[in-house]
Amino acid sequence: MRELRQEYSDENHDLILEEFGCNSSRADVAVINGALHAFEIKSDSDTLERLYAQVEAYKGVFQYVTLVCGERLLESARKVIPRWWGLQRAQHNNGKVVLITIRKSKKNPTQDASALARMLWKTEALTVLRKYGHSIVTSRSPAEDVVQAVAKCIPVHLLSDEVRYAIKARGGSGFAKRSSLDDDLYTTESIARQNHLLDLSWLLSPQYQHPPD
């Protein structure tokens, strides 16, 4: 986390969020700036059981994804993640844990309009439709109809931008608004409830237990 804050240090441009909700999974860290970039972290005490579902959850949404893991899982994880994911190895160096880049992330070729649209609240989705001149649904329409309209009408490259703008406009780390069928069906959440990412020693600890999704 310290490394990310150093790399993405412009508070007016870079939003760094822990435990970022995406579909049925949570990315350990998401960086929202000129792109949507997820960082998934696997400690030496983790398994790769959840990684398969995380690959599926992230592929329609994030423009970039980087996996950070210890030596124990490195080769196994490499076989699971798509080739466009970045990969970093955590290792000890002079008593500290440092991150070594194995490969840099590439732009996701599988972003999906429907997955992106589901990252918007209903009110945000309606605003996006109005912005681009579409009035095929109204505030009285079911949220699912609104999201489907966004996915149909807004190209992926524009929708990705609009999702970034919406997340940053919500501000801070508290996206805890819950959804209902007649109001805002979709939401993203970020719960900055852990500070362990400031100290990377837990990454190589066999006792560390990763929090559940």
Automatic annotation (TrEMBL):
InterPro entries recorded: Sce7726-like
Name the record gives this protein: Sce7726 family protein
Lineage, uppermost ranks: Bacteria, Pseudomonadati, Acidobacteriota, Terriglobia, Terriglobales
